[in-house]
UniProtKB/TrEMBL annotation:
This is MULE transposase domain-containing protein. It comes from the Eukaryota. It comes from Triticum aestivum. Residues 1-22 are annotated as: Disordered.
């Protein structure tokens, strides 16, 4: 992280600290002048004061440290509302978040505080090609948005060194023992990249697309290099073969097999409901990496649901929850496998998902929810997420076209109805009243009773309610 000069003077109030705003798109701890601050009689930390709107620039700078490349995840967070404190101290917060290096705090090493180097050939038929990435790193800091001065953020660095509890460097290019074979040539691939790559393989994304995404992730750490790209290609291919060869049939009885799998993967399962006479089978899956992406990109942004049917041997629908990153690319942040679309079951897994998010960041909220299945129940989404609901335009038009072809025999009439429905869709964003356009449609095609009855009974209630929400 670079050497920083320690101050002998200890400050007693945040009001005495200077506000620092280093130039550039991002900056790190090495660019700040740290001061000792005594928050209590027995507690003293390194602190710095920066503008609140530059908080993300600081976090990005810390992640891209060449000596200790990493990502920081939100370990926990709290929030206060204005006016809730009668007496305000200089370091009281409106928003508090604890950020921890993603190589910690737990250590998943085998039999020690340092993960062993792999200097021998492994049987990788049932194991990943690299060790797990949580290596007991103790580096962590907190950021407070100040109650008295909301435009400022106080950074409190509890541990600036990327070391484990024994004081040893535990990840990055300086850690020769924990990276594995070829450590001097290839920096360690963190859990974020590894889990993203595994998620894409499980989704069935073509290998060349997965490889491109994997290499982009590695290049954020170590830059472009032909050797790195070659080894990355081998890694992705090998990981794909391991996943394809693995079996998830742990027992001849399907329910017993699922229970065993859930028990072995507790950290990645946010909801599980067995199939009974009264309850439908529901399985909600979310990895730690997906949880962090949902917190990072889902807050105050759009969440989307993508439904796939008939993709498995058991013909169970797969519902994928998506967020959109800074480049507006969709990231899968949770999967739900179930046949049930009832309000009761949908509410249960949605509440379990949001509870898991709020256990890390109680301030997390979304700005809207996009659905692609017109048969979905809307009330659970409104009750759980308290946000506007949008239909996927492409999926709606595809559904309309299928039903027009099915319920109208005349090709010319099919074309005219589809054109009129397109005008209705675009009138939503114009000054025209969308419902007036629909009424005109019903009058023009009053003889097409089968399609008009279907549209009035199924779509008008859904569209009408959502149009009122938009208003």
């Amino acid at each position: 992280m670079g050497e920083v000069m320690e101050m002998t003077e200890v400050r007693q109030s945040v009001s005495d600290l200077p506000v620092q705003d280093p130039p550039g798109e991002e900056f790190s701890a090495a660019d700040l002048r740290w001061v000792k601050y005594a928050s209590s009689e027995h507690h003293c930390d390194d602190v710095a004061l920066i503008p609140y709107d530059r908080m993300e620039a600081f976090i990005s700078g810390e992640c891209n440290n060449p000596e200790y490349p990493t990502r920081f995840h939100i370990e926990r967070g709290r929030k206060r509302e204005r006016g809730t404190l009668k007496e305000v101290r200089s370091d009281d917060y409106l928003l508090y978040r604890m950020y921890w290096c993603s190589f910690g705090p737990e250590n998943y090493g085998e039999g020690g505080t340092i993960l062993p180097s792999r200097r021998y050939r492994l049987n990788t038929r049932n194991r990943a090609a690299r060790p797990q990435s949580m290596r007991g790193c103790t580096c962590h800091f907190a950021i407070k948005r100040l109650y008295a001065r909301p435009s400022l953020a106080l950074i409190i660095y509890h541990e600036r060194r990327h070391v484990n509890k024994s004081g040893f460097v535990c990840h990055g290019p300086l850690d020769r023992d924990a990276i594995g074979p070829g450590a001097r040539k290839v920096p360690y691939v963190g859990s974020e990249i590894q889990q993203q790559t595994m998620s894409l393989i499980y989704l069935g994304v073509p290998e060349e697309n997965i490889l491109q995404t994997h290499i982009e992730g590695i290049q954020r750490y170590c830059g472009s290099d032909a050797k790195v790209d070659s080894l990355a290609s081998q890694y992705v291919h090998k990981l794909g073969m391991i996943i394809k060869r693995s079996t998830h049939e742990l027992d001849l009885d399907d329910q017993a097999s699922i229970r065993m799998w859930v028990d072995r993967n507790k950290k990645s399962v946010f909801f599980h409901q067995d199939s009974t006479e009264t309850d439908a089978f529901v399985l909600g899956i979310q990895t730690e990496w997906q949880l962090q992406q949902m917190i990072r990109f889902g807050h105050q942004n759009i969440l989307a649901s993508h439904s796939s049917f008939g993709v498995s041997k058991l013909k169970y629908p797969l519902h994928t929850i998506l967020v959109f990153d800074s480049r507006q690319q969709a990231l899968p942040v949770a999967w739900v496998i179930t046949r049930s679309v009832t309000k009761h079951d949908t509410s249960r897994w949605m509440k379990a998902l949001t509870s898991r998010i709020h256990s890390v960041d109680s301030n997390w909220r979304i700005g809207g929810f996009i659905i692609d299945d017109p048969t979905s129940e809307l009330d659970p989404i409104r009750n759980v997420f308290s946000c506007p609901i949008f239909f996927s335009l492409w999926h709606i038009r595809r559904t309309w076209l299928k039903n027009i072809i099915k319920k109208c025999s005349n090709t010319e009439v099919q074309r005219e109805i589809f054109t009129q429905l397109g005008k209705f869709m675009y009138s939503i964003w114009s000054e025209k009243n969308p419902m007036d356009v629909l009424e005109q449609l019903f009058q023009d095609f009053v003889d097409q009773t089968t399609f008009i009855q279907y549209f009035k009974s199924f779509w008008v209630p859904k569209l009408g309610k959502n149009l009122r929400d938009v208003d």
